[in-house]
Write a structure and sequence with these properties.
Layout (H helix, E strand, L loop, with lengths): L2 H27 L4 E3 L16 E4 L5 E6 L8 H12 L3 E5 L2 H12 L6 E4 L12 E4 L2
Parallel strand pairs: 3-4
Antiparallel strand pairs: 1-2, 2-3, 5-6
Helix pairs in contact: 1-3
């Protein structure tokens, strides 16, 4: 990929992250959740490989969001961190747009966390598999 294309893709990814951060900020102001976003346009002080967003919901539940554009690649540290978080039964979502991430958060906000059962898909673990949520109703 040319350097110019790489910069353009990184700019689009950052724009999507900023849009998602605005959405999360509005929900945080309503006390619906808490989040951390180590801005992608600044040098990060968070561990290398940590997902772009950490989001905490009621009842002590959390989800992590990694933004990747169509040509985005995972670093080794990102793959290791995602696999570790999933092995600890945390929800990790790899998204391409703010809209996609917002739909996931909206769904997570509607879950009855106390009645929820987590189960892991059978098979090889990878960043392409995400934890599955099943609600008991």
């Amino acid at each position: 990929m040319l350097a110019r294309e790489h910069r353009a893709n990184a700019r689009r990814e950052l724009d999507e992250q900023k849009e998602f951060a605005g959405y999360l900020r509005r929900l945080k102001n309503k006390r619906a959740l808490h989040y951390v976003w180590p801005r992608g346009d600044k040098r990060s002080t968070i561990a290398i490989g940590h997902p772009d967003f950490s989001v905490w919901f009621k009842e002590g539940h959390s989800a992590f969001f990694e933004f990747k554009g169509e040509r985005g690649k995972f670093s080794i540290e990102q793959e290791q961190t995602i696999e570790l978080l999933q092995s600890l039964d945390h929800l990790v979502f790899v998204v391409a747009s703010a809209e996609q991430a917002e739909r996931i958060v909206t769904k997570l906000l509607s879950i009855d966390w106390l009645g929820m059962v987590f189960y892991r898909s059978v098979g090889k673990k990878s960043h392409e598999q995400s934890n599955t949520v099943q609600t008991n109703h």
